[in-house]
C-alpha cells in the first residue's frame, strides 16, 4: 500500500464512490494513479510520474484557479468528480473531500437547457428490498422527483406504470438518475431508461429513500406547510423528493438553498405522450438525433434561454385543460396580429438574462458581481416590458395579465438598490475590489480614498527621490519577498542618501528600503486588506439581499419566459400562415387544408383535409411507398399536439377535440434505419398502445406487423384494428401495406379508407400528395416492380404467385357490419351481441356473411385478383395449418411455362428464385432487398 501523498490520495479515493478525485496539493489540484490516466485521456492533460516511497505513479495536475472548467468537462462526460481541499491544522495541513460534483448537481453550465437530477422510487420499495426485488413483485406506482439545481425548480409526481415513468424521464431528459432500492434491481426498466436517456444513472444510499427520512428532509427544506399544502400525499413521490434533497446535500454543491420551488404535478392535466411517440414525432430531435428539423427547432423563435426551455416543455407536455390552452391561444392571437408591438416586446425581452438561474446562483452563494449586474439589468426591463404592452393592441391580452403578475414595486426597489451598489464594470473576481460604486458606503469610500492616497504616495516616490537626491535610474516597486523597495541603478548606487538601507544587490542595480517606506508599506497593506474585507462583506450582504428576493426574480423570470414562448409561437404562426384551432370537447379532429409543420418549411407542400369523428373514427391509409402516408398521419398528430400545447396550427381551419394521449408506432423500415428494429420492439409498442389508449386518445400506426412473415403480420394488424375499433375506440390513423385490410371498412362501422393518390401515365408515376377517400385500387409491391421496368413475364408471374400465396383461408371480421349500431357508444359496449360475423376470403379478397352471402370487397372490385385476370391459385400446395404455413409455390411449373422458356439464363434464374421465395416466411425488408437485387440483375442481362 503506497504511503505519502499518493497513499493519502488513495485513502480519500476509497472514501468516496465518485469516479475521479481531484486533491489539492498547495497551489494545484492533483490526480494520481488511474485517475491521472483517465483525466489525461479525457482532457488532454500531461501525465508525469510521481515517485512515492520507491514506487512511481502517474500524476496530472491543474492550478487551483483552473479546476472548475476541468471538473465541468469531466462531469459533462458523465463522471462524478470528488474534490478534496487542503486546510491548515496546528501541525501542518490535512485534506478532506468537500464536495462531489455529479451530472445532476453541476451548477456551472453554459448550456441553456434545463439540467435535471431525477430520483425514482417504487411503492412497496423498502430500503431492505435488496436483490430479491425482481421486476414483477412491487406493483405499486412510481414516485418521481426532478430537481434542476441551476434554476431551483423542483417537480414531484406519481405515475402509474413503467411506461409512464419512461415517458416522463424521456421528456425531462435528466442529466442524472438515482434509482431507488427496488428500481435499481429492475434490470429491464433500468436498461430501457439507460437506452432512452443520454444522462447517467448513479447509485445512492438506499437509506435516503426511507419514508421517515424523506418526509423529514422535505419538511426541513420547504417547511411543513408547503410540503403539506403542495399536496404530495403520495408516499413514493415524497420519498423520491426526499432522496433528491439528500443527494444534493451530500454532494455538497451548496445548492440546497436554491431549491425553493416545490411543485407537485399531476398527470391528469397533461396529454400522455410516451417516449416512443416523442421520438417518432421528432418533437425535440429527429430520428437521426439532430435538433435541426425537430418540431421544437422549427417553431422556436425565442430570444431568451428561459423562453426556450418553457417552449420545449409546452411541446413535450401538452395539456388537457381548455382554460389554460384558450389563454395561450388568446395571447398568441393578440401577438400574431400586432406585429409591431410584438417586435418591440421581443426586442425588449432579448435583453433579459436568465433570471431563474441567476436566482439559483444568488441563493447558492456563487453569484459574482457580474451576475448581480445581470440581475440589475434584467429588472430594469420590467417597466420597459409594461411600456411595450400598454397602449398597444396587447393591452387587453393575456400578455398584460402575465406582466401584471410581477410585483413591480418590489422589482423597482431591488433594481434601485443594485443600481446604487454595483460598479458598472466590476472585475470577474470577488476579492480584487472594484465591485461597488462610489457613494454606496461611506466607510468604504473613506478606506478607498486613504488607500488611494497611500498608493499615490508610493507611486510618486521614485520621482520625488530622483528630484530630491539627484538620482537618475530610480524605480519603486514591490514583490512578494522584498515588499516595497527603491531600486537604484548600479552606476548611481553610491550616491544614495544615508537613510537608505540596502536589502539586495542585483546584477545591475541595488534595492533599498527606508523607515518611511516601510511604514507607508504597512499602511498601504492594512488599507488594502481593510478595503477588500469591507467590500466583500458589503457585497455578500448585497447578494443575500438578492437571494432574499429569489422568488421575485423567479416570478419575473417566469413572466419573461412565458411572454417569450408565446411571442415565439405567434411569430411562427404569423410568418407561416398558421391558424387558431378551435378546441372542442367532442371526440373529433377536423382539419381543413392541413400541413406538416416541419415538412412545409422545406417543400412545396400539398395541403390535405382530415376528418375523424364519432362516425368515422378509424382511417386506413393506403398508397404506394413514398406517396406521403406517414407525413399525412404525423401531420395529424402534430396538429393535435400543437393545439394542446396552446399553439396555432398549420391548416386553413381546424377543430380539435382534446385528447388524453397521443400514441404512435412507426413501421419496421423507419426503425431499421435507426438500427433498432426487432419484431419484439414493434410488438411491445403495439401492446403499450392497446393497453394505454382510450376513447379519448389519438393513435397513429404506421405499419404494423411488417417485422414478421406476411400471414403473421396481417393477422396481427387485423386483430389490432378490430380491437382498436371495437374496444378502445381511439381515433386512429393506420397506414398499412396490407391491402387486404382496406376491406374492413365495409364491415366495421367506423372504419373508413383513405388513400394518397398517385398519377400513372406511360409507366411514369407522379406523386400527387393528395389524400382521397377510398382505398388504393391495388396492391403495390408487384406494381412497383412493374413500374421499375421488370420484364412483363416476371411481373405477371409475380402477380400469379402472389395470388397463389393468398391461401384459400378465411378470416372473420369481428365487430359488426357497416351501418350497424354502436357508433357513439362507450368503449366497452361492444358486446358479443352486436358482433356480426363476416368472413374474409383471402384468395378472392372479398367478404361473405357467415350465412354465405358474398359482399363486395372494395370500392373497386374489378381491381382485385391480380393482373391480366390471372385467377387465384386453386391448389393449396399443401399449405395447411395456421399462420405462416403457406408453402413455396411450385418452381417446376414456372420453369416449364412457354414464356419463361424464351428467356435468357439470367432472367430465368431470377424467375426461379422469385418463385422459390417463401413470402409468408420472409421478412418484408428482406423481400425488398431481394427485389432490388433481381432488378439490377435483370437490368444487366438486358
Ligand atoms: P410514405 O409514408 O407513403 O412512404 P412519406 O410520408 O414518407 O411517404 O412521404 C414521402 C415524401 O413525400 C417525403 O419526403 C415528404 O417530404 C413528401 N411529402 C409527403 N407528403 C407531402 C405533401 N403533402 N406535400 C409535399 N410533399 C410531401
UniProtKB/TrEMBL annotation:
* GO biological processes: mismatch repair
UniProt organism field: Halorubrum kocurii JCM 14978
Which GO terms of the molecular function aspect are on file? ATP binding; ATP-dependent DNA damage sensor activity; damaged DNA binding; mismatched DNA binding
Q: Where is this region: Disordered?
A: 810-833, 845-918
Q: Where is the composition biased (Low complexity)?
A: 845-860, 884-898
Q: Does the keyword Magnesium apply?
A: no
Q: What is the lineage of its organism?
A: Archaea, Methanobacteriati, Methanobacteriota, Stenosarchaea group, Halobacteria
Q: What is this protein called?
A: DNA mismatch repair protein MutS
* One Pfam family matching this protein: MutS_II
Identify the residues that the record assigns to the DNA mismatch repair proteins mutS family domain, covering every copy: 697-713
Q: Which gene encodes it?
A: mutS
Query: Which SMART domains does this one have?
Result: MUTSac, MUTSd
Q: Summarize the protein's role.
A: This protein is involved in the repair of mismatches in DNA. It is possible that it carries out the mismatch recognition step. This protein has a weak ATPase activity.
Basic and acidic residues bias spans:
899-911
Q: Which PANTHER family match?
A: DNA MISMATCH REPAIR PROTEIN MSH1, MITOCHONDRIAL (PTHR11361:SF34), DNA MISMATCH REPAIR PROTEIN MUTS FAMILY MEMBER (PTHR11361)
Q: Which residues form a coiled coil?
A: 503-537
